[in-house]
Amino acid sequence: ARFTNAAERDQAQAQERRMPYLHFMDQALEKFVRNDHKGCLEDLRIVLDRYPDDVNALFYAGLCCYNLGLNDRAERLLDRAAKHTYQVFNEEADWYHALALDRLGRKDEARSAMVRIMQAKGFYAAHAAATIARQ
């Protein structure tokens, strides 16, 4: 309704500024660093709408959901990030996925994940062992 004809609309769209992916992700992650998890999640949802398998967006959106107490969404996103073909966040995503399972009351699944993390002897192994010991 803003344009009188298709040519005018096409010209306006050609002039529309598009934010490059990396710049957009940098802005979203700056919000994450500032603990603006809601703002970061809003930005990452835009990325995930366009790139639903983006491992960066999956992981950080999962962390935002976890930090915001959106545990069902956190569990799903972090599970996808942990199992992603590009295994750049698999260890971190696996850890936070286990924590999300625990928050959801899925204690057996959480414990199994913690045992697997502990046995892998990675960065989160000691955290997993301490969590198991507290249970």
Shape: elongated
On the 0-100 scale, what is the average pLDDT? 90
Structural class: mainly alpha
Distance between the termini: 61 Å
CA-based gyration radius? 19 Å
Question: Proportion of β residues?
Answer: under 5%
Percentage of residues assigned to helices: over 70%
Any low-confidence stretches, pLDDT <50, length ≥5? none
DSSP summary, beta strand count: 0
Kindly describe this structure:
This protein is an all-alpha fold. It is 75% helix and 0% strand. It is built from eight helices and no strands. The radius of gyration is 19 Å and the shape is elongated. The termini are far apart. The model has no long low-confidence stretch (mean pLDDT 90).
Task: Considering the chains and any ligands shown, give keywords for the structure.
mainly alpha; 8 helices; 135 residues; 75% helix; single chain
Brief summary:
The radius of gyration is 19 Å and the shape is elongated.
SSE topology sketch:
Layout: H1 6-15, H2 21-33, H3 37-50, H4 55-68, H5 71-82, H6 90-103, H7 107-120, H8 125-134
